[in-house]
Amino acid sequence: MKRKLKICLLPVYLLRVATPVLAILALSSCGRADRTEYTAPGVSKLLATYRYETLKDVRYNLSFRIDTGRTSPVEGTAVIEFERTSGREPLVIDFNVPADHLRSVSVNGRQAEAALTNGHIVIDRSLLSKSYNRVEVGFRAGDLSLNRNDEYLYTLFVPDRASTAFPCFDQPDIKGRFMLALDIPESYRAMSNNPVVSADTSAGRVTLRFSETKPISTYLFAFAAGRFELIEKEIDGVKMEMLHRESRQGYVDKNSDEIFRLHYSALKWLEEYTHIPYPFDKFGFVLLPPFQYSGMEHPGSIFYRASSLMLEASPTLNEQLSRASLIAHETSHIWFGDLVTMKWFDDVWLKEVFAGYMSDKIVTPDFPSVNHELRFLLSRYPAAYNVDRTRGTNPVIQELGNMKDAGSLYGAIIYNKAPIVMRQLGQLAGEEKLREALQIYLKEYSFGNARWDDLIAIIEKVTRKPLEEWSRMWFREAGMPLITPAVSSGEENADVSYRISFREDDPAGNLRHWPQTLQAMVITASDTVTGEVTPADKRSFLTTSGEPYCIIPDISGRAYGTFLFDSTTAAYLPDHINDFQDPLLRGILWINMHENLLNGTVSPTPYYNTLFTALQTEEELQLRNYLAGRLGYVYWHHLSDSARTANAPDAEAMIWKKLIAAETASEKRQWFVLFRNVAVTERGLARLRDLWKSGQLPGGAVTDRLGAGPVRLGEDELSGLALTLALRGHPEAPAVIAAQRDRITTADRLQRFDFVLPSVSPDQAVRDDFFNSLRDPASREHEPWVLEALGYLHHPSAAYRSEHYILPSLQLLEEIKSTGDIFFPGGWITTTLAGHHSATVRETVERFLEERPDYPADLRLKILQAADHLFRE
Predict the structure, then answer these.
(1) What is the pLDDT of residues 714-760, one digit of tens each?
(2) Per-residue pLDDT averaged across 19-46, rounded?
(3) Which of 16, 73, 394, 644, by CA, is between 20 and 30 Å from 229?
(4) Which residues pair with 208 in a beta bridge?
(5) Is 170 exposed, middle or buried (CB count within 10 Å of its CB: 0-12, 13-18, 19+)?
(6) Do β-strands 152-154 and 223-226 pair in parallel, antiparallel, or remain unpaired?
(7) How far apart are CA 748 and CA 187, in angstroms?
(8) Quick one: which H or E segment has residue 518?
(9) How far apart are CA 109 and CA 134, in angstroms?
(10) Alpha helical stretches, state H, 430-557
(11) What is the distance between the alpha carbons of residues 357 and 377, in angstroms, rounded to a whole number?
């Protein structure tokens, strides 16, 4: 009995490294009363491990009947075929829907009880064969992951939502082959992972049958159906197809060729880099108006948010780069994530880091004039620091005991810190050695699953370098070092006046050391000294013959941490930051200055004044865009109301002048965005109103990719202007709002506008009703709309009137995690708290957490990340 009890209670975290045999013993040795984890809600690590070891050759044959509208039931059947290698336990199939959605179950031709246990169909082992099995299920699909709209629907199953639509083994390491049949209205089009092999039309409906897929994880299976337009294109033998709903005149013609070209370019680059031809049966993508993410990498059917790809006539450089990077990122996932998938979602970062790593390489040739080192710095470091500086930070590799919690793993650490660390790995291993290791990894695990430990072992073998300790510190530890300069005089040595070293502290209070080398710079009155320095190493330092005026811990743009200024550097940089000719170095200094603002070594007013001055002369477009964002941030979040009022006229005048003088459409749009952000004076708001009325930016004609002419504002920009005028209480706002509704040409955009509109209402009752409506999950289904509305509702200018929404927003967070998609809980709480700075809100957050010591750890971290600015004030 003791032996059985000991094995049965083997902790989940130990199962992570346990052998498969031990995992099976742990389950099979338990009595039924001890199997609660086996059929617990979600997919536990115990259940996943047991199924992986006892099931193979899984095939799904799925059919769905879809009607128009969003309320009619989606009925379906699922035939699941598989080989079962062990007969000791009942079979658990995941199907997380209301009980009445399960219609029938048959197992190997015999009817079985149609019942659900905690979101699972549990099939007695007496009905099962120890080899081939066939389970057929009749069901109604759950709506949670079907994203239903009046004229279309699309699935989104990541990370564990496939089982909310159809019965399956919903874990990444049980890959299956999928066949699909869709019975849809004849006016609909559809796309899935594989090509259509037949289309049968009858009585106003069409049944589309898709060929069987290669082995893929359940979260990668997908389909979209509805009123879409189809565009097909072939480039050098590569056939591609796109579904879209864009109806604005000219937008498809202006964007489609570039969208296809960027996909083609990414595909060919990846084939050459990996030495693996495109591994799936077709290549297509769907552009969806309210899509929750920028993109999702279903093989053969990538889903995108339409606005991320359909750009305005004169997009900014940042918009063009973002589109190219997004396409490269999602296409990279075909190899890194789809072909080779993480074994368990604690390694979800692995697919994301290589998609980001590859996308950075892919876009470089398309933008030869762009400083890509600077772009990497500005796009990765600030976002990573936003989380890693907080009490809610997490390591890259996080523990995961159950798939139902997998969505909380996503965030800036995975998407931004991991690529920074991976670039360090590229330096350590060498780019060619890393490429060789990745080619081995992809070939060895094709159409299978792998862990980070599998890859790092290959890299160590190829490079013959020990990387275990480096990997542990950077990937398995949370947080980042706090690095400060230490200056000592050297009177004992006549040839050396000053010695500069760097102290490394652990903000968590532990004795940890992050292995990295700094490329430091020290400026004196007569000299500039650079050299490599290792933090916390007393034998590593720079020497100068004069007193340091400015100490820059790292000028390479590759070191990672909080780099605090000494008082001399903090006084020197505001007057001299533009003296540095290298844009990358200026970018490093601006990021460091912002972190010093948040840590209290730089004051808001001098920082704002430095930004204001630099923005007028900065010629590097990426840096100008970064500075504009920081100016807006300090303007709203760090200046007092009186200081903002005092600075507003000069800020508006300077930005308006730049807007008029800008010679390209891209630059004009950049200045327009900043002007809309800061305009608060009567004159500034009148100019916003005039921009809305004219529908174009001032300053005359410019030349862009479409020729010469005025820069016209797009429909989304005009809607944003109308909502901004309403938020800021302009007297003409009601008339502007009414007229803007008439201007909007597409039903999707009108629905979005009407959804967001109550958040800027001057009527407290209207805003309250809107917030209360968000308690209903159905009102939150268009998550980008919700976050846009919350941004207006909690804007710093309106924060005083929205404090009473803080507590109920916190109270809703657990439900939002269970009903929303992976980024929504973090987006919800971050957007809710970002505009608030009062002691009342801080106390509300602190009390909420204090009163709930058993609150879910993942959501506690999300709150601590979002509230970091409150705790610093």
Answers:
(1) 999 999 999 999 999 999 999 999 999 999 998 999 999 999 999 99
(2) 64
(3) 73
(4) 182, 199
(5) buried
(6) antiparallel
(7) 18
(8) strand 518-523
(9) 8
(10) 431-444, 452-463, 468-475
(11) 13
